[in-house]
Amino acid sequence: TQMRLGELQAALDTSMTALRRFDNDMDGVLGVQARQLAGVCKRLQDINVDMVQEQLLWKRDRLETVEKARLLNTIFDAIPDVLGVLDHNRRLLRYNTAGYEFIGKAAHEVVGKTCFELLDHAAPCDTCPAQIAMETCAPARVEKYLDGHQRWFDVRAYPILDDSGHVSQIIEHM
């Protein structure tokens, strides 16, 4: 029995040593996994902070853009001369307030119509400053008599060029 007890004690010691080694191994594995998980959590937190900062910057930039657009619209509408923005097909994109008053119509009635349609003409004018500006990519000026208004006008057209140097829009000024 004494021998049997010694064998049992040796087996128990061996088992305990193996269990301690297993515990140490598991602590090592779990420690590595815990450190990896902590690293992932830190990276996710950093990404979240970056995203929040980017969103705040985007909102600030958007607000600044809206404020600048409001200022430009205010300036555009405060000019007492007729100003119109035409696309490359001479279709009206918008007038300033003086333009709508000059035509005697609201925006929804005139946006999308050509400049010559707005003057009750069936075709483009013979000497159209917008057409000249589109062809030359330079400002153009023409003096025109408008029958509907029974007077002469100094009509100017200023091209707005896109990044490739083509006319994308025209500012028409009367």
- What class do helices, strands and sheet pairing give? alpha+beta
Could you give the order of the helices and strands?
A: HEEHHHHEEE
- Assess the beta-strand content as a share of residues: 15-25%
Order the strands across the largest sheet as they lie in space: 2-1-5-4-3
- Report the biggest beta sheet as strand number plus sense, adding barrel if it closes: 5 strands, antiparallel
Helix content: 55-70%
Rg calculated over all Cα atoms: 39 Å
Distance between the termini: 120 Å
- Per the principal axes of the C-alpha atoms, what is the gross shape? rod-shaped
H/I helix tally: 5
Tally of DSSP β-strands: 5
Low-confidence residue ranges:
none
Mean pLDDT: 86
Compose a concise summary of this entry.
The protein is 57% helix and 20% strand. With 174 residues, it is an alpha+beta fold.
Topology:
Layout: H1 2-78, E1 83-87, E2 92-95, H2 97-103, H3 107-110, H4 115-118, H5 129-136, E3 140-146, E4 151-161, E5 167-173
Describe the structure.
The chain is of the alpha+beta class and 174 residues long. The chain is built from 5 helices and 5 strands. It has a 5-stranded antiparallel beta sheet with strand order 2-1-5-4-3. A hairpin with a 4-residue loop joins strand 1 and strand 2. The chain is rod-shaped. The chain starts with a helix and ends with a strand. 13% of the residues are buried. The model has no long low-confidence stretch (mean pLDDT 86).
